[in-house]
Write a structure and sequence with these properties.
- Belongs to the TRAFAC class YlqF/YawG GTPase family. RsgA subfamily.
- One of its GO terms (biological process) is ribosomal small subunit biogenesis.
- This protein is α/β, with parallel strands linked by helices.
- It is built from 8 helices and 15 strands.
- Helix content is 28%, strand content 25%.
- Strands 10-9-8-11-15-14 form a 6-stranded mixed beta sheet, sandwiched between helices. The chain has a 5-stranded mixed beta sheet with strand order 1-2-3-5-4, with no helix packed on it. A two-stranded antiparallel sheet has the order 6-7.
- Strand 8, helix 2 and strand 9 form a beta-alpha-beta unit.
- The radius of gyration is 21 Å and the shape is globular.
């Protein structure tokens, strides 16, 4: 559930045990991560030992956490304004790790009618692509979010100031997480999250992540980027050329779908932006 100052806090059957790791972990080059399924022994809740790590299905670097089922990506309708470009970058980073993303757009009650209509348009595009989109007011629909997280290990991510801590406090008032205020000069919230920890939310677990607005995507290539856009991935088999990356190639089914309005122009534009960054990075190396 938590790793802090050399201690590992293991949750088992409703109890949390404070453990140390056996010395052979270091020899084997292993470090227990939050989210790991482990074998442990403990005579009491204060003196336990982690004996072994079970195989991981995935590992995130930031935050360092294993076995993540779902990422709740929180964006706000206003303060800060919703950015589809940022949303698409978060989605790519999460798709790359084979984690299921759920988009949550908060603060809808603070938006004017024009912004609400804009958000509804974005919702339609993302749902058509295959994503689940939750729209929440400052007072959230608690049951919907609890149902999404039920029985899963989840992370919550998004820019600072979008309401992640407020959302977690609403889902579990016992958490009492410090909430940051928006800095209107920078347009970013103050960073309030300190360490990685799984928190109990209903029948699931969720980890808060430090607020950040840029994502490192070192594993991205020109070949695997298309898999991170579901609507592009679905059409790539229809392109004339097998290695098509949907940029300048002739008879590209993806570009045809964009021209026909079947793929949203802004999604394709962001795909090309990220593709260009990946190619430039490759050339630099």
């Amino acid at each position: 559930m938590k790793a802090l100052s050399g201690f590992y806090y293991v949750y088992c059957e409703g109890e949390t045990y404070q453990c140390r790791a056996r010395g052979n972990f270091r020899k084997r080059g292993l470090t227990p991560l939050v989210g790991d399924h482990v074998v442990f022994q403990a005579d009491n809740v204060k003196e336990g030992y982690v004996l072994d790590l079970l195989p991981r299905k995935n590992t995130l670097v930031r935050p360092p956490i294993a076995n993540v089922d779902l990422a709740l990506l929180v964006f706000s309708a206003v303060e800060p304004d919703f950015s589809a470009n940022l949303a698409d970058r978060f989605l790519v980073a999460i798709e790359l790790e084979d984690v299921t993303p759920v988009i949550c757009i908060s603060k809808l009650d603070l938006a004017d009618e024009a912004r609400k209509a804009e958000i509804a348009d974005y919702q339609a595009v993302y749902e058509e692509a295959g994503y689940q989109v939750l729209l929440t007011n400052t007072e959230i629909d608690k049951k919907t979010v609890l149902d999404v997280i039920a029985g899963k290990i989840a992370v919550i991510a998004g820019q600072s100031g979008v309401g992640k801590s407020t959302l977690l406090n609403t889902l579990n008032p016992d958490l009492d997480i410090e909430t940051g205020v928006i800095s209107f000069v920078l347009g970013r919230g103050k960073h309030t999250t300190r360490h990685v920890e799984l928190m109990t939310i209903g029948s699931g677990f969720i980890a808060d992540t430090p607020g950040f607005s840029s994502i490192e995507m070192d594993e991205l290539t020109t070949e695997n980027l298309q898999f991170c856009f579901p609507e592009i991935d679905r059409r790539r088999g229809e392109c004339k050329f097998r290695g098509c990356i949907h940029e300048n190639e002739p008879k590209c089914a993806v570009k045809t779908s964009v021209a026909n309005g079947e793929i949203a122009a802004f999604r394709y534009e962001h795909y090309i932006q990220i593709l260009t960054e990946v190619k430039n990075k490759k050339e630099r190396y």
